[in-house]
Each structure stands twice: as structure tokens, then as C-alpha cells.
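Methods — Computational structure assignment.
A single polypeptide chain was analysed. Its primary sequence is given first, followed by the predicted tertiary structure written as C-alpha cells.
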Amino acid sequence: MSLKLKEEFLKLLEEDKDFRLTVAGIIGYRDILERFEEYDKKFNEVINELREHRKILNEHTKRFEEHDKKFNEIIIELKEHRKILEEHTRILEEHTKTLGEHTRILGEHTKILGEHTRILRNHTKRLEEHDKKFNEIINEMRDLKKDVELLSDKVEVTIGSMGKKWGIGLERTVLKIFKETLETKGIEPGKVEKFKFKDENGSITGIKGKIIDVDVLIKDEKLYVIEVKSTAEIDHIEHLIEKTNAIKKILKRPVDKIFLIAINVDKEAYDRAKEANIEVIYSNILEQNI
């Protein structure tokens, strides 16, 4: 067979499938060739699939490389952080050591402060006791001063009475002595006023030119008649009754209450005042006239 004929034959085998199968059939290899072609087809499919897998693998490899790069960057950053953390740890240990020293010193100071607090509490307690005693002494001194003033007023009234120097000053002193008692009965000594009236024609008392002189207090639309004496006797009670009747006529209104205020009051005068519904405020009742 010539060379040219061989080349054409091989070309036909390569390019012409039917020719190739005919030749294979002639020589008994037709089935084998068909199976090879089927294998070639599957092999090509596998090759294509592998190419796709390779493509995907390349992309994954690229992403892994990027991740590796980022991971390395993170590793570097972590190393920096670790370095900083180690420095902070060193500083913290130094601070902890310093704090421990401060805590020890504070403990010593706390112990000293506790002792000082205990001493201060003892001093405070003693000071409170002293304050209590001091206040008691102050109150006692106030009571004593009050008693002294009251005694002084009584002495003043007694001396004034003995010397026949009875006047407005001594009346006020007597009112001052009985101030607390009078206030409990609704009488304010500072609001007691002097009432003085001259019966020119005697139409009130039956005596021309007679002078009515008595203390009065008008409070809450009520009229109180008040007589102040150092020593009250029976005659003073009778005169007070006469003055009260005269005031009723002069003011044309009833008298709500009559008060007799005296340091000393005769027993006879006291009994007569009770009969006449006169309230007596006094320090002493004398069994015999002075």
C-alpha cells in the first residue's frame, strides 16, 4: 500500500466515524471502539467536572489566601495586644503591691481611728452628761431666780403696805406675782385697766362726789372687776361689792366675774368673798386681822 493511500486511510479512520466503525466491524473491534467512545465521553465529562472543581478550588484557595493574610494580620495585632497586656499586667502588679501597702497603712490608721472614735464617744457621753447636769443647774437657777423675784416682789409689797405707800406700782407687782395663776383663769395682767369714776350728783352711789376706783378687764365681750390688795380685810370686800354694783349702773351691763387678788387675806374677808361669789387669789390666809 502506497504512503498516500495509508495517510488517507488513517485520516478517514480519525475523521469519519462510520468509516471507522465499518473498519472496526470488519476487523471485529466495533463494540470495543463504541465502548471506548463511551468511555471517552464520560472521561471528557469527568475532565470538565474536574476543571470546574479546579476552578472552584482555585477560588477557595484564593479566599483561603486572603483569610490567611487577614489571620496573619490578626496574629500580628494580637501579638501587639499581648505586648500591651503584659505591660498593663506589670503596671497592675505594681499598683497591687502599692495598694497592698496602702491597705496595710489604712488598716493601721483604721485601728487608730477606731480607738479615737471610742475615746470620742466616751467624751461625747460625758459631755452629754455634763450638758444634762448643766441644763438642770440652769433650770434650778431659773427657778431660784423666779423664786427670788417672787420673794422680792412679796417683800416689796409687804414693805409698801407697812409703809402705807400703796399705789399703782405695788398693784402691778402683785399682778406680776400671780401672773401664771391669773393667766390660767383667762386674765392677762398686761391688759388690766384702771377704771375711775366720780359720782358728781350721787345718783350712782348716793354720795355726791364719791370716786369709784377699781381695776377692770374687758375680754371676749365679758367684763371682769378686779381688786388688788397687799392685805385684804372684811371692809375691802364690802367696798368691792359696792364698787361692782356701781360699775353695773355706770356701764349699764352685768359684771361677769369679780376677782380679789391679795398677798394676805383675812379669814373673815375670805369667807365673805366666797359668800359674795368673789374669787380670791392669794398667798396666805390670816386667822387674825393685821
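Note: The longest strand covers residues 222-232.
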